[in-house]
Amino acid sequence: MDSAEGGLTVLEGIILCVVAVLLAVLAVHALNAPPGHPVGFVYSALEETGGCLMVSGEVYGYALTGGTVDGVALACDRPDPSRMGAVSCSVRLFVGDMGSVDMGCAALEVATAEGTERLERTQEAPVWPGNWTIVRMGHTIPFLQADGDTLLELGEQFDLVIYPSRPLAPGEKFLIRIAPPGAVPLTVERAVPPRLTPVTDLG
Questions:
Q1: Cα dihedral across residues 169, 170, 171, 176: positive or negative
Q2: What distance in Å separates the CA atoms of residue 109 and residue 178, rounded to the nearest whole number?
Q3: Burial label, 66 (beta-carbon count in 10 A; 0-12, 13-18, 19+)
Q4: Which residue, among 189, 187, 184, 154, has the nearest Cα to 52 in the 3D structure?
Q5: Is the preceding peptide bond at 126 cis, omega within 30 degrees of 0?
Q6: Which phi-psi region, left, alpha or beta, contains residue 182 (left: φ > 0; alpha: ψ -120 to 50)?
Q7: CA dihedral sign of residues 62, 64, 67, 73
């Protein structure tokens, strides 16, 4: 039939049939979706935001002198005030995050030009080089408190002390990578300033 007379060509008919079949398949899929679990593009986008860490506040470096950081003792066999021994930072979930992060099972690495070291999480004191620890669990909303477990949830903030095996020299660049299971890894990149003080704001 000639399309100029207002009818459909064979090609147009085939296209309409394909579209109708696709719509029927989508309708059947939507009706047979398992109940209780939201589906769709919007939900998938929201689900992807779960487990996004961010640094809250400043990152601090501590000269290799032992002593305490946020009330936690650091073991030090060979003090060297000219080098940086430990780093502290606070982490929380990204604003609007829909999930939680198990910091108790997080993998933490410190990378420099000389290589990468994976630190172990410890709950013992003093903290020895080669380890990291959660020193405080707080809440960003006034009058609220963290529930005390290692799940970092919306509104909570964990203060970390990171104590690599090898002290860092002035001018040395380093990268801290925090990767909780099932979450987006957080990387913190800084450089040791040319001159250290007992506590140095790394920005």
A1: positive
A2: 7
A3: middle
A4: 184
A5: yes
A6: left
A7: positive
Q: Which has the closest alpha carbon to 172: 139, 142, 129, 202? A: 202
Segment 54-64, tens digit of pLDDT: 999 999 999 99
Do the beta carbons of residue 128 and residue 119 sit within 8 Å? no
Q: Is residue 136 packed enough to be buried (19+ CB in 10 Å), middle (13-18) or exposed (0-12)?
A: middle
Amino acid at 97: D
**52-201, what's its fold?**
Immunoglobulin-like (2.60.40)
**Euclidean distance between CA atoms 118 and 114, whole angstroms:** 13
Take residue 47 and report the two structure tokens written for it.
């689900």
Position 148 scores a pLDDT of 82
Q: Is the pTM of this model over 0.90?
A: no
Residue 162 one-letter amino acid: I
Token output for 160: 């970390």
